[in-house]
């Protein structure tokens, strides 16, 4: 599976670094070429000679190292980013995780993280004391790296070098190699290959005045996960995104918009030639009738706000679509309400509706997980339980694929 693959292994300064010569050996045994990049602290825990011996290459650590794999005419940190098929960081310490998220480039590991080609997979295996791992700072940095497409291999529970027993152990090298093999496995040929897919994602903002707006809590994570997975399956994906702070998934054409009217204008440019339209955005149904130039001044009176309807983007696509164009919508409710989803399927003339509930903890807006109930036109209902939004996007596309017309 890894035969001929070029893997960069970034090693940070944690006790689990002592397992990395074995990790290198497993990668080599699976047929990969391995270039080790070690931070200065990593080499306090594991010997440079051991790593160079098992990888059969000098270990790179200094930003100014002059020799590495790849094109001799370019500097090492540039050629490494081009040479690599994948980047594994194991063990990843809290310090390096923070530095990668901040975009620092002060050693070979951090600079190569930036120069890596955006379509190449990155696997991060955090390992540290349990309290450190659970801290909001580390979790925030990991979430940000996950949002830009890095895969995080969760640490395991057990005895820790800190004396604690808990979550924070680096998974065994065998598990890291298995995860890497799964990431580099070519995607099965999908019916989405070469199809034109439009995804809307995130919230919209409806201006009250020049400094205030009406909006909602959508983070864009669900729609971005769908766009990322559709592109991974070979679709030609346009992602029309409201204001969110997420990185663009590899291979996706992204169009940033602000209001529902902007989203309508951008999405409608692709109505004519798209094979599949997926509305994951939480589009504001209403906007202030007359946004004020400047800032609304307060006084002692109550204020009435008159709202007018926004265009229904998904509804308009469905109403005007040609035979063979598929239309998929989401429906968010705050309680039971599956009847509302069925009503949306009918009213918006959808092929499939994905019903989800905002429970404030594991499903709906903002969180990294979600659960969906899919309802199709024939009345079939498929329950997809709580899982990460990335995995859920895959399950959703698995259900959509058979609905695509044959070519
Ligand atoms: O972004 P996240 O934080 O990850 O959260 C994901 C999500 C909860 C936003 C997502 O899973 C979701 O449910 N999106 C739809 C939210 C919703 O309630 O939509 P709706 O019931 O208002 O609209 C139904 C469908 O019509 C949706 O597909 C929507 O994109 C579309 N629509 C709605 C109004 C409008 N003016 N134009 C539209 O296209």
Can you put this structure into words, describing what you see?
With 407 residues, this protein is of the alpha/beta class. The chain folds into 2 domains: 6-184, Flavin prenyltransferase-like (Rossmann fold); 196-403, 3-Layer(aba) Sandwich (Rossmann fold). The chain contains 14 helices and 19 strands. The strands form 5 sheets. The protein has an 8-stranded mixed beta sheet, sandwiched between helices. Strands 2-1-3-4-5 form a 5-stranded parallel beta sheet, with helices on both faces. It has a two-stranded antiparallel sheet with strand order 6-7.
SSE layout and pairing:
Elements: E1 6-11, H1 20-29, E2 33-38, H2 42-45, H3 48-55, H4 76-83, E3 86-92, H5 94-102, H6 108-115, E4 122-126, H7 130-134, H8 136-147, E5 151-152, E6 156-159, E7 165-169, H9 173-184, E8 196-201, E9 206-207, E10 213-214, H10 221-232, E11 236-241, E12 253-256, H11 260-268, E13 276-279, E14 286-288, E15 307-309, H12 313-320, E16 326-333, H13 338-347, E17 352-357, E18 369-376, E19 381-388, H14 389-400
Parallel strand pairs: 1-2, 1-3, 3-4, 4-5, 8-11, 8-13, 11-12, 13-16, 16-17
Antiparallel strand pairs: 6-7, 9-10, 14-15, 17-18, 18-19
Helix pairs in contact: 1-3, 1-9, 4-6, 5-8, 10-14
Bound molecules: ligand PMT.
Question: Could you give a quick summary of the protein structure above?
Answer:
With 407 residues, the protein is an alpha/beta fold. It contains 14 helices and 19 strands. The protein has helices at residues 20-29, 42-45, 48-55, 76-83, 94-102, 108-115, 130-134, 136-147, 173-184, 221-232, 260-268, 313-320, 338-347, 389-400, and strands at residues 6-11, 33-38, 86-92, 122-126, 151-152, 156-159, 165-169, 196-201, 206-207, 213-214, 236-241, 253-256, 276-279, 286-288, 307-309, 326-333, 352-357, 369-376, 381-388.
């Amino acid at each position: 599976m890894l035969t001929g693959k070029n893997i960069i292994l970034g090693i940070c300064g944690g006790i689990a670094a002592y397992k990395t010569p074995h990790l290198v050996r497993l990668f080599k045994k699976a047929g990969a070429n391995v270039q080790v990049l070690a931070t200065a602290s990593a080499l306090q825990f594991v010997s440079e000679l051991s790593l160079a011996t098992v990888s059969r290459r000098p270990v790179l650590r200094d930003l100014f190292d002059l020799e590495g794999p790849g094109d001799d005419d370019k500097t090492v940190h540039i050629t490494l980013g081009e040479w690599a098929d994948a980047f594994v960081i194991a063990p990843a310490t809290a310090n390096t995780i923070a530095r990668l998220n901040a975009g620092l480039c002060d050693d070979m590991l951090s600079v190569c993280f930036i120069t890596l080609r955006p379509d190449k997979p990155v696997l991060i295996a955090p390992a540290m004391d349990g309290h450190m791992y659970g801290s909001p700072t580390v979790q925030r940095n990991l979430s940000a790296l996950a949002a830009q497409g890095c895969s995080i291999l969760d640490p395991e529970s057990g005895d820790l070098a800190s004396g604690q027993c808990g979550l924070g152990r680096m998974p065994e090298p065998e598990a890291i190699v298995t995860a890497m093999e799964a990431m580099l496995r070519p995607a099965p040929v999908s019916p989405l290959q070469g199809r034109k897919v439009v995804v809307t994602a995130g919230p919209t903002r409806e201006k009250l005045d020049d400094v205030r707006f009406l909006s909602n809590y959508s983070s864009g994570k669900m729609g971005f996960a769908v766009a990322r997975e559709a592109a991974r399956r070979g679709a030609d994906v346009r992602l029309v995104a409201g204001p969110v702070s997420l990185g663009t998934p590899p291979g996706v054409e992204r169009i940033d918009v602000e209001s529902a009217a902007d989203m309508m204008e951008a999405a409608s440019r692709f109505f004519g030639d798209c094979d599949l339209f997926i509305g994951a955005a939480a589009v504001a149904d209403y906007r202030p009738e007359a946004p004020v130039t400047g800032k609304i001044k307060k006084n002692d009176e109550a204020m009435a706000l008159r709202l007018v309807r926004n265009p229904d983007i998904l509804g308009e696509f469905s109403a005007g679509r040609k035979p063979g164009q598929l239309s998929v919508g989401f429906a968010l409710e705050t309680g039971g309400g599956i009847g509302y989803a069925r009503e949306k399927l009918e009213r918006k003339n959808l092929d499939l509706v994905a019903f989800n509930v905002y429970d404030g903890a594991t499903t709906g807006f903002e969180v990294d997980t979600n659960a969906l109930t899919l309802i199709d036109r024939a009345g079939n209902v498929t329950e997809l339980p709580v899982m990460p939004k990335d995995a859920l996007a895959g399950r959703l596309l698995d259900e959509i694929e058979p609905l695509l017309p044959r070519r």
